[in-house]
Amino acid sequence: MSNDPFPPNPYSPNPHGSAGYQGPGNATNAADAVSAPAISLIVVSLICILCLLIALGVDAFLVFSGMADRLQENNAGFSKETQIKVRVIGSLVLIAINSFILFTAIRMKSLRSYPLALTGAILAAIPCISPCYFIGIPFGIWATIVLMRPEVKQAFR
What keywords were assigned to this record (predicted)? Predict the structure, then answer.
């Protein structure tokens, strides 16, 4: 038994025993740090795009089946056609935004395009950008925090 008054912390990283560890700020550590938030943003973006495509399919079904004519008008007095057009345009805009977030998350995972990765993470954290915003907000904040670390910024260069 050792007489050391301060035994080593079993939870601290061991630079001598860890395979692949090369010190703080290296690309391996940064890749590990951004991996989980990037994968989370990829999954959330794909879920959002899928939901929006389903919504577009439902709207197309309503228009082409004639069921849109049987829907009640809302209190604002907009026609059924106008309501569906607004939903379709909104869905297309949200698909474009979520496709951008997906693209930036893929770039983040490969440690490329830091400004794009940060923009995508911030967009994911903005409420009402997608139908999955309640999931996207925490992952967007998490990705933004990870991307703001100096060692992660340096790894993108």
Answer: Membrane, Transmembrane, Transmembrane helix
48 neighbors 42 (Cβ within 8 angstroms): no
Tally of domains within the chain = 1
Its domain, for residue 107, covers 28-71+78-156
Half-sphere exposure of 138 (CA within 13 A, CB side): 4
pTM (two decimals): 0.74
Q: How does pLDDT run across 93-145, given as a tens digit for each residue?
A: 999 999 999 999 999 999 888 999 999 999 998 887 766 778 888 999 999 99
The per-residue pLDDT for range 31-89, each reduced to its tens digit, is 888 999 999 999 999 999 999 999 899 888 877 777 666 665 554 666 777 777 888 89
- Phi and psi based region of residue 23 (left: phi greater than 0; alpha: psi -120 to 50; beta: remaining): left
| Closest of 147, 134, 100, 124 to residue 41, by C-alpha | 124
